[in-house]
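Slide 14.
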Amino acid sequence: GIVVVATTPLLSVSTVRIEGVTYTNQKTLDEVTKMLKGDAILTLDTGPALEVLESDPWVREASIDTKFPNTVVIDIAERTPRVWFRSTDEKFRIIDEEGRVLAVTTGQPTGYLEVTGLAPNVAPGSVAPDEYTAAAQLSMSMPEELASKVARFGVTTAGDITLSLQSGALIKFGAPNDIRQKLISVVVVLRRPESEKLVLIDVSAGEVVVK
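Slide 15: predicted structure.
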């Protein structure tokens, strides 16, 4: 009797509600919905569906809850795009603060800062080189008064980071260490009345050099 009740169509999944989605691939969502619909809600195995969801580069974390008698709610926490770069294949890659490649596009992204350099052709879901990851993390750390002035990031062959300002000035940030102190030094310089005339701010070696 218990088996009959558990498998009756009246207690089968007929509705799949998905929340928290902006960028996740629609094909992934359709596949998961198809996997879940029609299964008995009392014996539902969500493991395979979660694996499919978490294989999508945009998905940081996902959970699946059942709502009696026949509804499943999928809650997705997506990754946040931070910066983008052009690779040697002339395509654009968007990454988050962990360096994970969220998407590869043929159109130039908008809404995030560019990182210039000789970038490899990294597949979606893979991790970008350390210097690009560092630039993404730096984009999160910048105070607003600096972030509003930055036009793009750059990485050198040595792995150093640069920041190009909208004024045309270049900030040599150097290796991604002592980030807080370097940011403070840059902000202090930019607060000076003559900062608009500067063409170079170099904090790569710890000491501040301006031109």
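Speaker note: Confidence is low (pLDDT under 50) at residues 1-6.
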